[in-house]
Design brief:
Blueprint lengths: L10 E2 L3 E5 L5 H10 L19 H17 L3 E7 L5 E11 L4 E8 L8 H16 L4 E7 L3 H9 L3 E11 L5 E10 H8 L5
Helix pairs in contact: 1-2
The structure holds coenzyme A (COA).
């Protein structure tokens, strides 16, 4: 990224707030990983939050994520319930190509908070953050073609299905699945979300 952008460190939505991880989040993040190990096993198999073995390791992980935020090399945010401060989801934003700029959006919901619209609410705010503060020209999202819940989040946010690669993964049980690619362009964001505020 050519210049260091001045970006917000707290985003509020109707029910939630999003913020980067920070020192001291380790015990909370370790508990998230423990609680969601099975929930994330199928579609987020490699997610490092599942692999954390101790609070100390989780603390190092959140400090690394906080450093990534400071360097603006990746943007991980915890999503919290405004009323209770409970962790409800994670948003990941990763640069694919700053020359475009193209960024990738990813997420997971905490297993105790699925099916309440929290991820769609947070992902919509994340799209606004990406277009308004990171000056994106496009945003991409990739998911397994069996991951109906993830595809629904993308659709509810107004992202367009751009590609479907069939049966490019093989599961331990011998089944195959494919990959879906969603995208949103800057002019589509402006039309759907009512313009750029930043
Ligand atoms: C993919 C994933 C994040 C989707 O989470 P989710 O809870 O289904 O998504 P949302 O928070 O947007 O909730 C949507 C659901 O809440 C329901 N809902 C309930 N109250 C709602 C409200 N007030 N507003 C909006 N939706 C509401 C919606 O009807 C919808 O249910 P439906 O899909 O059965 O129709 C989640 O399944 C997950 O973490 N999976 C494992 C990790 C993963 O796959 N990550 C993505 C990798 S690409």
């Amino acid at each position: 990224m050519d210049s260091h952008r001045n970006i917000p460190t707290r985003i509020e939505t109707e029910r939630l707030y999003l913020r980067p991880y920070r020192a001291g989040d380790g015990p909370m993040y370790y508990a998230v990983g423990q609680r969601n190990r099975d929930h994330l096993a199928r579609y987020e198999t490699e997610n490092f939050v599942r692999m954390l073995d101790s609070e100390a390791e989780a603390e190092q992980a959140v400090q690394d994520l906080a450093a990534g935020w400071e360097e603006q090399s990746s943007f991980f945010m915890g999503v919290f319930d405004k009323r209770t401060d409970e962790f409800v989801a994670q948003i990941y934003i990763g640069p694919m190509n700053w020359d475009v700029p193209e960024l990738e959006l990813g997420f997971f919901v905490d297993c105790d908070h699925e099916g309440r619209g929290y991820v769609t609410e947070a992902a919509r705010a994340a799209l606004r953050f990406i277009f308004e503060h990171l000056d994106a020209h496009r945003v991409s999202l990739h998911c397994d073609d069996g991951n109906v819940r993830s595809a629904r989040v993308a659709e509810r946010c107004g992202m367009r299905l751009e590609g479907h690669v069939r049966e490019n993964k093989k599961w331990p049980d011998g089944d195959f699945s494919g990959s879906l690619s969603f995208g949103m362009l800057r002019h589509e964001f402006e039309a759907l979300y009512g313009g750029i505020d930043a």
